Amino acid sequence: DGFIWLDGEMVPWREARVHVLTHTLHYGMGVFEGVRAYETADGPAIFRLQEHTDRLFRSAHIMQMKIPFTKEQVNQAQVDVVRENKLPHAYLRPMAFYGSEGMGLRASNLQVHLVVAAWEWPAYMSPEALELGIKVRTSSYTRHHVNIAMCKAKANGNYINSMLSLSEALSGGADEALLLDPEGYVAEGSGENIFIVRDGVIYTPDLTSCLDGITRKTLFTLAADQGYEVREKRITRDEVYIADEAFFTGTAAEITPIRELDGRIIGEGRRGPVTEKLQAIYFDLVRGKVPQ
Ligand code: PLP
């Protein structure tokens, strides 16, 4: 129940439907965002709203999809959906997709639609993941900056690799996948950026082969405020094996410790002190307990 914002209108949840000939369903070209609203003393607050909207438009630009709304309208749609559904906290999903106006690969006769849905989604991985850390497995699928939808776009096509990676990880007894780039360097998780900590310094892959994560960027600021140095560099998978700590960042995953990669225990095999500290500050920030 509740409402979904679809092409400028609040539509009852069950009526927000598309036709079976929806173009994006057939060819997979679409762009989306994953956004969160947190419960704060002043009601629900959407964390980094403008950044998510900006990235949605950048993704659309890469995919040559023209979103028929302004950024202000897209921001407002997200605020309205949370309010209309009276959600204290929420996961939001804006998505631009091609409708059923045309088939075939020629984009000129296609119309771009925009939907914003929101629902309560408290724990993305598991309730224990944030505290105990997760087991990760390196994927046989890679993250590409040159083909599929290119990694700077949060585009539907990229999630085929993410889903195949995750499924491979889960069937191998792990909780999440780590994707490498075509050269074998660490890229990112199926839906998260990765960080490692070694001798008090925090490292993360540069943006060549991973999504420009909004949580990743937030972490840079938080870490700097705490006096940690964050370096962007190419990371190999064995550097993760011998790290003191490792963690994923993402809107859904928040800051999730990694306790094991490919059967190698990382550090003490549990959430490390740097991860724990950054996590605590992150939660204070998103819940409005410290100024943004
Ligand atoms: N990498 C991928 C492939 C993702 O899908 C996401 C999730 O949005 C991230 C990284 C993390 O990005 P953000 O922190 O903006 O949610």
TrEMBL record:
Family: Belongs to the class-IV pyridoxal-phosphate-dependent aminotransferase family.
Keywords: Amino-acid biosynthesis, Aminotransferase, Branched-chain amino acid biosynthesis, Pyridoxal phosphate, Transferase
UniProt-listed PROSITE patterns: AA_TRANSFER_CLASS_4
Pathway: Amino-acid biosynthesis; L-leucine biosynthesis; L-leucine from 3-methyl-2-oxobutanoate: step 4/4; Amino-acid biosynthesis; L-valine biosynthesis; L-valine from pyruvate: step 4/4; Amino-acid biosynthesis; L-isoleucine biosynthesis; L-isoleucine from 2-oxobutanoate: step 4/4
Function, as annotated: Acts on leucine, isoleucine and valine.
Enzyme Commission numbers on file: 2.6.1.42
Gene Ontology CC: one annotated term: cytosol
A Gene Ontology molecular function term of the record: L-leucine-2-oxoglutarate transaminase activity
CDD domains named in the record: BCAT_beta_family
Catalysis performed (reactions): L-leucine + 2-oxoglutarate = 4-methyl-2-oxopentanoate + L-glutamate; L-isoleucine + 2-oxoglutarate = (S)-3-methyl-2-oxopentanoate + L-glutamate; L-valine + 2-oxoglutarate = 3-methyl-2-oxobutanoate + L-glutamate
UniProt cross-references to PANTHER family, sorted A to Z: AMINO-ACID AMINOTRANSFERASE (PTHR42743), AMINODEOXYCHORISMATE LYASE (PTHR42743:SF11)
Cofactor(s) this protein requires: pyridoxal 5'-phosphate
GO BP: aspartate biosynthetic process; isoleucine biosynthetic process; L-leucine biosynthetic process; L-valine biosynthetic process
InterPro entries (UniProt xref): Aminotrans_IV, Aminotrans_IV_CS, Aminotransferase-like, B_amino_transI, BCAT-like_C, BCAT-like_N, BCAT_family, Class-IV_PLP-Dep_Aminotrnsfr
Keyword check for Transmembrane: no
Designated name of the protein: Branched-chain-amino-acid aminotransferase
